[in-house]
Amino acid sequence: CTNVGCTLIGLAPDDIEGFSVERARELAGLTEQVGLGLCVFTGYMKYRELLLKKEPSRAAIIMGAEQRMDSDGLPSRWLCPFRPENKKLYLNELMEVAGWPATREVHLNDEAALGLATGAIGCYCDRCIAEFESVSGEQPPREADWASDLWWAWLDHRFHMWGEVHAWLRKQIKDARPDIEVGMAHSPIHPCFLYNPWKTAISLARDARTLDFIGTDPYHFIHSNIIGFRPHRRICTETTLSLIHISAPTRPRLSSYAVFC
User: Fold this and answer.
1) At what angle do helices 149-176 and 84-98 cross, to 10 degrees?
2) Of 122, 17, 116, whose CA–CA distance to 70 is shortest?
3) Which in 42, 49, 146, 170 has the greatest CB count within 10 A?
């Protein structure tokens, strides 16, 4: 038995995909009426195409490959997760969600990363360049150089910044609603290590320490082209087993959703 009745994704008013805040608010009221809780998957970097058309300076700058493709093989243009104006936008949406009595879980930044399917990495926007310069004294390198201390410093900085922004978002929600559990639903690509973590900047071990839960939500017939487990239901099983091994020292709650579509 579960207290989670519904899942949502994409909460900006002008999103191309998912629910708007207004529609999500209505659904939260309905779940409360029937005594169910609400699990909310929230998009942050992704699903912002219309916003980026209006304000392109808010985008993450991804470099290192000709095509910027996401884990579903689709062209991608995402928000920079570190720019103050983007954090403010997302936090306002999260505070709206936290204000709904039915909300039980919030999943942050749906299936995003700092590296894409082709191996392109970011972020190289002006704000992120300035931030790295402030701690290193140099601009971030644009190409991999495994003999360079600066390259390793850049990779470490990206891991740190990625973990920090999600830990900060969790704290804001917990300060407002301590009873809400806050975590992330990673693409199953990450717990399966199909992309090297230096590309994505995702440290699953850190997420296990700083979030209430970690999870994955495989869309069996979308991700099956790159995740070879068969039959398809094994995609969910194997990615969950991988998370169990990663998180064993800290034992956060695991959240695994199988979406059949």
Assistant:
1) 30
2) 116
3) 42
**pLDDT at position 5:** 47
**Which residues neighbour 243 within 8 Å (Cβ) at sequence distance 6 or greater?**
191, 204, 214, 215, 216, 254, 256
In whole angstroms, give the CA distance from residue 4 to residue 1: 9
Is residue 185 packed enough to be buried (19+ CB in 10 Å), middle (13-18) or exposed (0-12)? buried
Distances (CA, A) of 43 to 18, 112, 148: 9, 8, 35
* pLDDT attached to residue 261: 37
Nearest CA to 101 out of 41, 7, 176 is that of 176
For residue 76, count CB atoms less than 10 angstroms from its CB and return exposed for 0-12, middle for 13-18, buried for 19 or more. Answer: buried
pLDDT of residue 247: 59
**Which residues of the chain are modeled with pLDDT < 50?**
1, 5, 14-15, 66-67, 69, 71-74, 258-261
Pairwise CA distance, residues 52 & 79, whole Å? 8
pLDDT at 223: 66
